[in-house]
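In this section we walk through a basic example: taking a raw amino acid sequence and producing a predicted 3D structure, encoded as discrete structure tokens. The instruction is simple. Fold the sequence below.
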Amino acid sequence: SIKKMLGGFKDRRLILGALFLYALYLPPSFGTPLMAYMREVMHIDKMFIGLLGTLGTATEILGFLVYLKWGFKWNMWKKLYACVALSGLSAFAYLYTPNQWWLLAYGMIFGGLVGIIHLTILSYAVKIVPKGSEGFIFAGLMSVLNLGSQTSISLGGLFYEPLGFRGLVILSGIIALLPLAVVHLLRR
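The resulting token sequence is shown next.
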């Protein structure tokens, strides 16, 4: 019933989980500034940038497969701590981009991590959905992720000009690490 579906939004664990999920996707995006940096500062051609995207996506699929093989055996809370920490640390890695080969390595390594992190987040979202309104509440949580992602893109655009590429990467890394402070609260 509609009353039961809407009642799920009163669940304190669900509300805290939704805020956590939003915070995970909130760090200012530096994807577009990175593209500009690669073209204008590093003078990388469009074909290589396309290769970076393709290999990143391929390794993301490998990350999905790793998660499907072993991820369900790992402790959810340890996975969440690791995902948050790895998200922040991977952002800071982009402070060191001496050449296109480093970017290639980052794309391949972090692509796999993105796959594992994404499935961990989806698994957590499934875990906090109250019984009886799973589809409706899960769809709402995915909307929270999408809102966080769109906010991230907007924040990246907002902070790029005043902070520059390096400043934006630092801000993104710091904000990505902040959810570490609340993972322990999610267990209650």
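Looking at the output, two observations stand out. The mean pLDDT is 91. The radius of gyration is 18 Å. In the next section we compare this with other chains.
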